[in-house]
Structures are given as C-alpha cells and as structure tokens.
Amino acid sequence: MNIVLSIVYLCVHINFIYCVYVLAPTEVRNLKSVPMIFSIVFTWSEPVPLNGILNRYTIRYSVNGSSEITNTTRDTTFSITDLNPNTVVSNIRVIAATGTGDGPPQMLKDITTLDRYREFVNIHLYLYMIAITFFFGYVLIACLLDV
Question: Whole-angstrom Cα distance, residue 84 to residue 88?
Fold first, then answer.
C-alpha cells in the first residue's frame, strides 16, 4: 500500500497523453524519539528504496495542541528544543522527499518531555542508594574486623 501511496503520475502531452510512472521515496525507517527535560531528539534511517536522489526530510508536529509546525533537514536527526518539562509533542510525522515529490509519512504517537521533579527524585534516590551501600559496607567491614 505504501508503494501505491508513493506513486506520482507525471503526464507529458505530446499529441496524446503519455503517462510515465515515477516513484517517490518510500517512508523513512526506524523512527525513534529520545525525550529529555527541555527537548526531544528524533532519529531515523533513510528510506529503502530511495527511488531517486533524496532532497530533504520534512518534520511536522504540534506542541501542546498548537498549530502544526513544519521544519526541514537533510540529516537523519532532528531536535525540538526550548521546550518545558511535561510538554506534549503530538502528530509527529517525518517525510522523505526527492525531486519527484514527498513519500508517505512515518508517524509517532505523542511524546512528552521528562518531568524535572521526577528526574530530580531519581537522581537523589540513586545518590541515597550509593550512600546506603557505603554505610552498610563500612558496618560490614567494621564487624568483620571487630573494630
């Protein structure tokens, strides 16, 4: 079905209609996101087959239900920065494009930036566990040495 969606019809008029089927790129592969406290990083692999020379990737998304934002890049990574903790980025689509046109979108469900408080708590719990480990290690050594 993606191949069917990728077909662009290029019709040339020379005394009669002569139609040539030219394929747009297929969808990008392995689209992943890495949410952080103030940003989200997206990575993907280029489409296979490319069906031409890749011009750009278009990234479309909404932040907290606002109007759609569109960006383009030539890289297989893209970052949305300057976000607040617990920001919801939705309707995420990455589209590969050649000179023929756009391929089908690869989509992700809603992604939420991390909660600053949760990260703060996780770091403190980690440090607390290290402190407890050292304390019990010291007590164990003291008992073994009979100090």
Answer: 9
Q: pTM of this prediction?
A: 0.66
Question: Does residue 61 have a pLDDT over 90?
Answer: yes
> Which residue ranges make up each domain of the chain?
25-114, 115-147
Token digits of residue 11:
């019709």
The class of domain 25-114 in CATH terms is mainly beta
Which pLDDT belongs to residue 99? 86
DSSP 145: H
For 121, other C-beta atoms within 10 Å of its C-beta total 11
Classify residue 52 by its DSSP letter.
S
Residue 107 φ then ψ, to 5°: -115, 155
Nearest CA among 133, 35, 30, 51 for reference residue 84: 35
d(CA 8, CA 28): 18
